[in-house]
Amino acid sequence: MVFDIEMIKKVYAALPGKVEATRKLLGRPLTLSEKILYAHLYAPTTAAYERGKSYVEFAPDRVAMQDATAQMALLQFMTCGRDKVAVPSTVHCDHLIQAKTGATEDLATAVDTNKEVYEFLSSISNKYGIGFWKPGAGIIHQVVLENYAFPGGLMIGTDSHTPNAGGLGMLAIGVGGADAVDVMAGLPWELKMPKLIGVKLTGKLSGWSSPKDVILKVAGVLTVKGGTGCIVEYFGEGADNLSATGKGTICNMGAEIGATCSVFAYDTKMSAYLSATERADIAALADGVKDHLRPDAEVYADPSKYYDQVIEINLDELEPHVNGPFTPDLAWPISKFAQAVKENNWPEKLEVALIGSCTNSSYEDISRAASLAKQAVDKNLDVKAEYTITPGSELVRYTIERDGLLNTFDQIGGIVLANACGPCIGQWARHIDDPNRKNSIITSFNRNFAKRNDGLAATHAFVASPEIVTAFAIAGDLTFNPLTDKLKTKDGKEVMLDEPTGFELPAKGFAVDDPGYQAPAADGSGVQVIVSPTSDRLQLLAPFAAWEGTDLKGLKLLIKAKGKCTTDHISMAGPWLKYRGHLDNISNNMLIGAINAFNDKSDSVKNQLSGEYAGVPVVQRAYKAANIGSVVVGDENYGEGSSREHAAMEPRHLGVRAILVKSFARIHETNLKKQGMLGLTFADKEDYDKIQEDDTFDIVGLTTFAPGKQLTVVANHKDGSKDEILVNHTYNEQQIEWFKAGGALNVIRAQFAKAKA
Q1: 749: pLDDT strictly greater than 90
Q2: Residue 125 shares a structural domain with residue 252
Q3: What region holds the Aconitase A/isopropylmalate dehydratase small subunit swivel domain (predicted)?
Q4: Does one domain contain both 264 and 392?
Q5: Distance CA 186, CA 522 (A)
Q6: At 384, is the secondary structure helix, strand, or coil?
C-alpha cells in the first residue's frame, strides 16, 4: 500500500519550478537542504533568509507522533476547534511497552496495562483522520521509513529521532507536541533557518566498519551540541555507497549532536529501498525529478563555498567506534577502546549486549549481527553476556523470522523483545543482583546518558554498531578487539571472528502477515473520545494563564542545576511514561534527576518558605500553593536529548516562570516558548556563578519585551546585596505574543474561535 501518493505527486510536480525560483532568488547553486526548505515555505518570499538568524514559516508535508508524546499533542489538538487534521498524520504505539521477559509476554502485558491510553489514542486518531499503528507494529522511525518517508519531503515528528527519515532524502525534524498541533491545525510551522554542515564521505565501508561508525565519529568531532541549529547534509561517493537504512542510522543519531536534522541526497540505494518496500511508484516519481533531489553539481565541486562547515571522512580508513560512557559524543576508535577502558577503570566485564532499536534494526543490521551469532555456534564459542534483539518493526521481525535469523539468535541464547523502544528509552525491567554495583552494558541504540537504559546510575552504557555489540556479547569483555584478538572455544582452542557479512535487503523480499495499521474513519464526526475524569493516566487540559502585563517580582530560586541537564533529568521516562497523558501526575517527576549545585544531590532543594530540604516537585508545589513563582537556573545545552514537551509543560504547570541557563538545546527552547515560558540565557556565562541558594529574583523589562532586546534579572541575595544580570533571549514578535497570551495554544484557540464566529 502506498500512502499519500496524491500528496507526493503534488510535491514533485511543484518541485522543479520552486527549485528554479529559489536558485534565481539566491543567485547561486543550491544545496539539497535549501531546495527542500525553500520548496516548503508556507508563503512565497521575495528575499533570501539568513541562516542562523531568520525565523521562517514552513508547510510540512506530514506529522508523525509516538504514543508517549502523542497523548499530550492530541489533548492539545482537540481543544483547538478543528474537525480533522490538515496534513497526513500518524500515531505509533512504541514507547509504552516494557521489556521484561520477551516479545509475546511483554506485548500482552502492555496492551492490558495501557488499555485506557491505547483506546484514547485509537479513538482520537479515528475521529480526526489520523493513521494509527497499533502496539507491536514497530518503532515510529522504522515504520515511517518503511511507509511514509519520501525523497524531497518535509516532515515533523514528536520525537527527537524523527530525522531517521533523512535516510530516504527527507528533511524530517523532531519537535514538541505544540509544533505538531500547529501543523495539524493547518497553521505554519516556524523554525529558525538552519545553518548547514556538509559531511563529505569518500571511499567505501568494508570489514567491521558500518554506517553507525560514521555518526559515532561525527559525534566525536562535533560533540553533543556541535550541530545545534544546523542541518547536516551528507554527500560524496561514500554517501552514495551506503544503503538507505544505513543512511537512516546516521541521520537518526544526528539528534545526539543537537542537529536540526540530517539528510542524504537521492540515489539508487534509496530507489531500491522504496521498491523493496512496495513503493516503486514513489521511486519512479523521484527518478523523474532526481536532479532536484540532490545538491547542484557546483556544490559538490566546491562544498566549502556553500556549507557553513565541512567535515571530510574517508570510509576506506574509518575504524569501528565505541562511544561512551554517559554521553554519546565520547568517541573511541576500537583500536583505542580497550586502553580507555583500563585507564578509566570502567568495568571490563560486559553484562548485557543489546541490538536493535530505531537506530539499528534494519534487515542489513540484523543479518550482519546474525552472521556473527552463527560464527559463535559454528566455532563452538560460549556467548558470555546476556544478549537481546529488538526488531524495529513487524515487517522486519516477520522477515528475519522467515529467513531463519531469529533461530540463529536463539541458538546463542538471544532474547527477542517486542517491536518497540524498550531498553533504549528506559522501558527495561532489568535483572541485576545489585543495582548499585558498577557494571557495563553495550547497545546499538543512540543514547547512553546515566540511568537512560535501566534507571541505574552505576551502569556504564556504551554505544556501537550491532556487529561490534554482538562481538562483545560473545567475548563478554570490553577490552576485546574483534579485529585483532582471539577467543577461546569451549574446548580450549583459539579462534578469531571473521568479518561480519549481511544483506542490504532480503533476497526473497520483505513479508508480513499483519503490519498493525488502522485507517481512520472516513467521517469522524460521530466518534466519541472519552477521557475519564478520575483517570490517573489521562487528563484534559486547562489553558495556562496569560501574562499579568507586569515585570515579574519576588520569584524564588527552585534549583540551580549543575552540569548536564537533559530532558531525561527534567522529565524522566521509564516508569513515568505511563503518566504522559496526565500533566499533573507526571509533574511529580519534574527535575528530579537534576543535580543541585549547592549540595550535589538530585531531588533535594531548599524550600525558602520553610528552610527545609525536599524534592523539587514538592518544593515547587509549596511555592505554587503560596502563589509564588520561581526560576530554574541551568548550565550548558540545557534540555538536550528527547523532544518531550513535558519537560517544558511540567514547570509551566507547577508555576515556574523562567528558565535561565548558559545555553539551550533547540527543541527544548522552542517547547518552552510554545508553553508561554521565559527561556533566557546569561549574557555573560560567568554570571551563573553569582546565583546563590536563597536568591529571590525580579525579571525587569517585560513591559517593553521585544526581539533582540536584553532583559535584566535582579538576583536579590539573602544578605541584602543584589546582582543585576543581563540576559539574552531569542524571542521574535510571534513568540512574544505566545508569552503574553500564556502559550501558543491560547493564540491558536482564539484564532479558530474568531474564524468560526
Answers
A1: no
A2: yes
A3: 557-684
A4: no
A5: 19
A6: coil
* Rounded CA separation 180/667 (Å): 12
Q: Say yes or no: 614 and 752 in one domain.
A: yes
- With respect to residue 369, please indicate whether it lies within any of the assigned structural domains: yes
Closest residue by Cα to residue 145 from 135, 157, 134, 136: 157
What backbone phi and psi angles, to 5 degrees, belong to 293? -105, 15
Phi and psi at 297, nearest 5°, equal -60, -35
Known active-site residue 159:
yes
- pLDDT tens-digit series, residues 424-482: 998 999 989 999 999 999 999 998 988 899 999 999 999 999 999 999 999 999 999 99
Residue 301 exposure: Cα atoms within 13 Å on the Cβ side: 5
Domain assignment present for residue 521? The answer is no
Strands (E), 279-361: 309-314, 321-323, 331-333, 350-356
Residues 62, 95, 537, 580: which is the catalytic one? 95
Same domain for 150 and 107, yes or no, is yes
Q: Are residues 567 and 667 in the same domain?
A: yes
Q: Which of 279, 294, 644, 729 is catalytic?
A: 644
Which residues constitute the domain of residue 747?
552-756
- Could you tell me if 651 and 569 lie in one domain? yes
The CATH number that applies at residue 743 is 3.20.19.10
Instruction: Tell me if 157 sits within 8 A of 143, measured CB to CB.
Output: no
For the question of residue 642 being annotated catalytic, the response is yes
State yes or no: is 95 an active-site residue.
yes
Q: Which is catalytic among the residues 161, 447, 646, 668?
A: 447
Which one of 642, 643, 666, 668 is the catalytic residue? 642
Spatial distance between the Cα atoms of 26 and 722, rounded to a whole number of angstroms: 50
Total domains present in the chain = 3
Same domain, 290 and 342: no
CATH code assigned at 81: 3.30.499.10
pLDDT tens figures, 536-563: 999 999 999 999 999 999 999 999 999 9
Residues 219 and 344 in one domain: no
* Cα 426–Cα 427–Cα 432 angle in degrees, nearest 5: 80
The catalytic position among 4, 61, 106, 159 is 159
Give yes or no for a cis peptide into 533 (omega within 30° of 0). Answer: no
Q: What's the pLDDT tens digit per position in 672-709?
A: 999 999 999 999 999 999 999 999 999 999 999 999 99
Q: What is the 3-state secondary structure (H, E, C) of 564-581?
A: CCCHHHHECCHHHHHHCE
Q: Which of 316, 348, 372 is the last residue of a domain?
A: 316
Domain boundary among 288, 316, 344: 316
pLDDT tens for 83-141 read 999 999 999 999 999 999 999 999 999 999 999 999 999 999 999 999 999 999 999 99
Contact 646, 571 (CB under 8 A): yes
**Rounded Cα–Cα distance for residues 642 and 384 (Å):** 32
Residue 374 lies in a domain: yes
Distance, in Å, from the CA atom of 675 to the CA atom of 203, rounded to the nearest integer, reads: 47
Is beta strand 309-314 parallel, antiparallel or unpaired with respect to 321-323? Answer: unpaired
From 94, 179, 267, 568, the catalytic residue: 94
Cα–Cα distance measured from residue 502 to residue 208, given in angstroms and rounded to the nearest whole number: 11
Catalytic annotation present for 28: no
What are 715's strand-pairing partners?
697, 723
Is the Cβ–Cβ distance between 35 and 164 less than 8 Å?
Answer: no
- Residue 393 lies inside a defined structural domain of this protein: yes
